[in-house]
Specification:
By secondary structure, the chain is of the alpha+beta class. 40% of the residues lie in helices and 15% in strands. The structure holds flavin mononucleotide (FMN).
């Protein structure tokens, strides 16, 4: 944490503490981060060991939409939890599917590390472009294989973070690093920029698209509904958008930060949220994006598999990453920005599946996760 931020938080905390009664400075979640410590260490059985890493995958709004059936030996049947969808910002479950692709890639990587090759059968009962439904997403078969090669990106799994902070505007992202990051993708066309003109255009576009999402009540509410405000809420529901730290505890204890309040433009919660998002977009020092030829479920899974690879490679290069998905979302109010981002980044056609800002920032804490046990439907 930098000094200015620390003083702001402390200052806010002290002022609010006067009226806050028993709010506890330094209160932090107790159990929400345990899955990070248990990854690879708490499980001997190969599928569970690989899955303990897979649940650390990046995924939209940290909904962790995965469910696994382990009832057949050596097999993982992955399906989606219909309660974890984002119908307003992700009406066709495109982003949720990308998150499942990230999950599968980490599972395959972790299995390889442990000497297992994984055969993947995707959408064994067919795919539906409109809705992910409740059919299985993948059947994964684990086979012990001494010749399987570990993936060099695996070493970055524990350090990968979505860094939702302003980035250091005094540091440009080196082209050589962008080349390494882009080269991590295996299937999906991936590009990146740190050119001034393109950064300016994409900062502008992502700012405008974020404003549309915030000012469209139903899409904004979809985020606010999954706010986890303070340590107790985060431990109780270790998913969604986690807001923690002394300032948050204080604002929450005094009633200044509530879900209802954050819905109203002009309220402290709404306007502070807007400032945070604007400061993120305005300090983007580079962008990376993935374009698939079409937009089938398989394209989305491939995009997810490559996305997490790109993110891991950036982690290895010391570059912070935050997906900025608003302009890619498929709802009427966003259409002008969806069209614009496709004109800019996919002029030859195709679907922009991921767009993320890049830059430098010091390490940030991991985001919460449900334990693996909460995601096993049959064992
Ligand atoms: C398909 C997809 C879309 C995402 N879109 C956004 C986004 O628009 N803004 C953002 O801040 N994070 C976005 N994220 C990042 C998630 O919020 C993040 O992965 C999740 O909160 C878990 O945190 P972690 O990546 O640090 O483990 C996206 C991730 C995925 C896979």
């Amino acid at each position: 944490m930098n000094r200015r931020k620390f003083l702001t938080i402390l200052g806010g905390g002290v002022i609010l503490a006067a009226g806050a009664g028993a709010y506890r400075l330094g209160q932090s979640p107790q159990t929400a981060f345990e899955p990070w410590a248990r990854a690879g260490t708490a499980y001997a059985e190969p599928r569970r060991k690989a899955l303990s890493y897979a649940i650390l995958a990046p995924n939209p709004h940290n909904m962790q939409p995965w469910l696994v059936d382990l009832s057949q030996p050596g097999t993982v049947i992955l399906s989606v939890d219909p309660a974890k969808m984002l119908p307003h910002t992700d009406p066709h479950n495109r982003q949720i599917t990308i998150g499942l692709g990230c999950f599968l890639e980490l599972m395959v990587m972790a299995a390889a590390q442990d000497g297992y090759r994984v055969g993947l059968e995707l959408f064994p009962q067919g795919e539906d472009a409109q809705s992910l439904g409740e059919k299985p997403v993948a059947i994964a078969r684990f086979v012990a294989d001494k010749s399987v090669q570990p993936d060099p990106l695996f070493v970055h799994v524990m350090d990968r973070r979505s860094v939702k902070e302003p980035y250091d505007t005094s540091r440009t992202v080196e082209r050589t690093k962008l080349n390494t990051i882009v080269a991590a993708a295996r299937d999906v066309k991936t590009d990146a920029t740190s050119e001034q003109d393109q950064i300016a255009a994409l900062r502008n576009l992502t700012t405008q698209a974020s404003t549309v999402e915030m000012e469209t009540p139903r899409t904004h509410k979809e985020s606010v509904d999954v706010f986890r405000i303070g340590a107790a809420e985060i431990d109780a529901n270790p998913d969604g958008i986690d807001l923690s730290g002394p300032m948050i505890e204080a604002l929450s204890a005094t009633g200044l930060l509530t879900r209802e309040g954050s819905l109203e433009p002009g309220s402290t919660g709404f306007e502070e949220g807007r400032k945070i998002i604007m400061s993120q977009m305005a300090t983007s020092m580079g962008f990376v994006w993935l374009v698939s030829p079409a937009n089938t479920r398989l394209d989305q899974i491939k995009a997810g598999r490559d996305w997490v690879r790109v993110h891991l490679a950036a982690t290895g290069e010391g570059i912070s990453v935050q997906p900025t998905s608003q302009a890619l979302q498929e709802y009427a109010e966003m259409e002008p920005f969806y069209n614009r981002v496709h004109e800019m980044l996919a002029p030859q056609g195709g679907t922009v599946q991921m767009l993320a800002r890049l830059g430098y920032h010091e390490p940030v804490p991991a985001s919460p996760r449900w334990p693996l046990e909460a995601k096993i439907v049959e064992s």
